[in-house]
UniProtKB/TrEMBL annotation:
Keywords of this entry: Signal
Source organism of this protein record: Aestuariibaculum suncheonense
Source organism phylogeny: Bacteria, Pseudomonadati, Bacteroidota, Flavobacteriia, Flavobacteriales
DUF4959 domain span: 22-126
Domain DUF5126: 128-228
Protein name: DUF4959 domain-containing protein
InterPro entries linked: DUF4959, DUF5000, DUF5126, FN3_sf
Domain DUF5000 per the UniProt entry, residue ranges: 265-401
A Pfam family assignment: DUF5000
Signal peptide interval: 1-24
Length: 405
């Protein structure tokens, strides 16, 4: 009986400890001190209005236990905002405004006991947010299989260009192919459409969910087809690269294989300077839209490395309608595009992660400017591979375009 009483006492004590511990955790960390006297207010507030944001400079109160300054305001879309700056600073930047109206900001000094001062209220008038200039620069045009979207984002804002079409209920709905970017020059094609009139709507949105007006347009995509690989033929010009071995040939570029070495094309590693060019006939004169290229992936240590050895890093595509001795400077060949492949992870050479795998395993599109002439013969020139040389290792090339233009 005594043993049972002792056991029950221990259980009860543990339960009390657990409850007290839980209560302590729910209350969160305590203030550093226990000073309920409000600190002095910030003074001499100077407002600098900027595009979509404001910079505040101020004089801090002299309280020795000052911890930080906090500014609270509400965006035009109703989102409450709070920005803090430590007592080591005398300025802060408030973001997220559209710049279409004046707004009030309340500024508080806060001490180590989390006691706030009386508020200081200032009125700010931010300049127009960058999304509106981006929207004004927006251009949409028919492209192969879809629509081409161009816009300028000189301050490299994190924005979305929402591409919308009507759903079955007749409501405008953003597409999964909408553009999310922070690059300074936006040029993107949304593909997969039949060459019939299509209604589109476009909106620019920032990361605070501010939006511009809507651009409505009707676009008829240009017909695009995959050029049949059965009609593509290898061509050998005098300055084409020497092949790595007898098991590889130009035809391997368009034989349908995208993974194995015996379905891929390799130029000789023993010739590391000079032209590393490969030439082929696509069957008929065609207005090109893009080349879809799979770089060869080296099987290393039980995984496939796509940014390794002869996989192309920088390359050019050339086009012509007649053949010469291979000279690229006599006007026979037109430069169709220059390209550089980037590794998403940024990891050192020989190291790749899942993001790299996802970006490379299905190949990638390399677009041809719609202003380039229709051509029949193509050349791929490797300028730099991932090993730092010029030899190339390519698994497959698909050619898209319109042979009727």
């Amino acid at each position: 009986m005594k043993q049972n009483f002792i056991k029950f006492s221990w259980i009860l004590m543990l339960a009390v400890i657990v409850v007290l511990s839980a209560c302590s955790e729910e209350q969160g960390p305590s203030p550093l001190e226990n000073n309920t006297t409000p600190p002095g207010i910030v003074e001499n507030v100077v407002v600098e209005n900027l595009p979509g944001k404001v910079k505040l400079e101020y004089t801090l109160p002299s309280d020795k236990d000052l911890l930080y300054v906090v500014a609270r305001y509400t965006l035009e879309n109703g989102t409450p905002m709070e920005v803090k700056a430590s007592y080591y600073q005398n300025s802060m930047v408030l973001e997220g405004f559209t710049g279409l109206s004046e707004e009030e900001v309340e500024i508080y000094a806060v001490n180590r006991s989390e006691t706030e001062s009386a508020p200081v209220t200032v009125t700010v008038a931010p300049l127009e947010a960058p999304i509106f200039d981006i929207f004004r620069s927006l251009e949409t045009n028919a492209d192969f299989g879809g629509v081409r979207i161009n816009a300028l984002n000189p301050t490299e804002e994190d924005i979305a260009v929402l591409v919308m079409q009507k759903n079955v209920q007749g409501d405008w709905e953003p597409l999964a192919t909408s553009i999310y970017t922070s690059v300074d020059t936006i040029s993107r094609s949304i593909r997969g459409y039949d060459p019939v009139p299509q209604d589109f709507a476009f909106v620019v949105r920032d990361r605070w969910l501010n939006t511009t007006d809507t651009l409505f347009t009707e676009i008829t995509p240009i017909f695009e087809m995959l050029m049949p690989r059965e009609e593509m033929l290898p061509v050998t010009l005098p300055n084409d690269a020497e092949l790595i071995a007898s098991h590889t040939e130009v035809r391997d570029l368009f034989n349908g294989g995208t993974l194995e070495w015996f379905d891929s094309y390799f130029t000789s590693r023993t010739i590391d300077v000079g032209n590393h060019l490969v030439t082929f006939d696509i069957g008929k004169q065609t207005k090109l839209s893009r080349l879809h290229i799979w770089n060869f992936s080296e099987p290393i240590g039980g995984q496939r490395l796509y940014y390794y050895l002869g996989a192309m890093r920088k390359f050019r595509i050339w086009g012509a309608n007649e053949l010469n001795d291979g000279n690229l400077e006599d006007g026979t060949w037109t430069l169709m595009g220059e390209y550089e492949i980037t590794k998403p992870s940024g990891l050192p050479y020989g190291q790749e992660d899942n993001n790299d795998l996802i970006a490379a395993q299905d190949g990638a599109d390399y677009e041809i400017d719609i202003e380039k002439p229709a051509v029949r013969f193509l050349r791929i020139e490797c300028q730099l591979n991932w090993a730092g040389g010029q030899y190339m290792a390519v698994s497959e090339v698909q050619v898209y375009g319109n042979p009727n233009l």
